[in-house]
From TrEMBL:
Keyword entries, A-Z: Membrane, Transmembrane, Transmembrane helix
Organism: Rhodococcus jostii
Domain of life per record: Bacteria
Transmembrane segments: 30-52, 59-79
Protein name from the UniProt record: DUF2254 family protein
Amino acid sequence: MVFSLLFLVGQFGATTLTPRLTLFRDDPLVWNSFGIFLGFFVFATTAGLVVNQKDAVPVAIPVAAVILTVVALAVMRILQLHAFRSIQLAPTLADVTARGEAVLATLYGTEPAGSERSGGPGGAVVRWTGTGGMLCQIDLPKLAHLAREADVLVRMRVRVGDALIPGSVVMSVDGAAGFDSRAMLGCLDVRIDRSFDQDPMLAFRIVDDIALRALSPAVNDPATAAQAIDCVGTLLPRISHRPVDVGDVADTEGELRVVVLLPDWDDYVSAAFDEIADAARHQPFVARHLLQTIDSLIGSAPAHRQSALERRSAWVRAHCDLPPTFRS
C-alpha cells in the first residue's frame, strides 16, 4: 500500500514539475526501504508458520518482531517525509542544483572565490564563496564585533531575501586592510528558501504570488486576489508612520560598524501593488478593490509618504478597467 501511494508522488512530480525529474525514483532510500519491508514481511510470515507448530519458542523471535516493526514504521515515516519533500519546488530545485554542482566539480574542479581588494571608494569587496541560495538572516552582533576587531565599516551589498550566487559581491569593507572575510561570510545564513526571520519583503512576495495565481486565466479567482490586497493593505500601515532607514548598526562603543541594505518606502509600495495592478488590468472587481485600498492608505499615510501611493492610484485609474465613477 505504501509503495502504491508513492507511485502517485512520481506521477505528480512528472506532471507538475518535469517528466525528466527522476531524483525520487533513483533515491537509494526508496529501494532500501522496500528491501526492509520485504525482509520484515518474510520474517514475520515464516515465524508465524513455525510458531504455530511449536509448544515453546525462543523469546528472541517476538522481540525481533517488535524491533523490526518499530524499524519498519520509522522507515515508513522517513519515506513519507522524503516523498512530501520531493513534491515541493524549493527542495527539488536545491537537489537538482546540488547534483549539477557535483558533476561540474568532478569535471572541472573547484576554486572558491575570495575577497578582492579594490582601490575604488567602496574599499575591499567580499564575494560569496558558498553554494547558491537565499540570504535568510545576518548575524548582526557577530558581524559588528568582527568589524570592530578589524576597525572597519562593513556595508552590505545585498538584502535579506536576495539570491546569492557563487562569486557575487555581498559586502564592501571600508577601513583597514586586515579583516577576516571568511568569518564575515560566516555571519550570513543562506538556505534554499526564504525565511520570515529577517526578511521584511517575504510577506509581500507571498501575497503577490497568491494574488497573481488567482488572477491567472487558469484559476480566475478574483475574490482571492481581493483578499490578498487586503493583506498588503494591512501590512503597509504598520510602516507608513515609521522610519524605514534603520540599517545602521553600531558596536558596543556606539561607533557605526555595519550598514545593512534595507528596502525603502517606495520598494514596499511597489512590492505591494505593482504586479497585482498589472495583472488586474481587465479585472474590474479587483482593480476597484485595489484602488479603494490605495486611496484609503493615501488618506492615512503622512504627507511625505503619499506621493508613491498617488502614483499607483493614478496608474490604476489610467490603465485598468474601471467604472467611470472610479476614474475621477
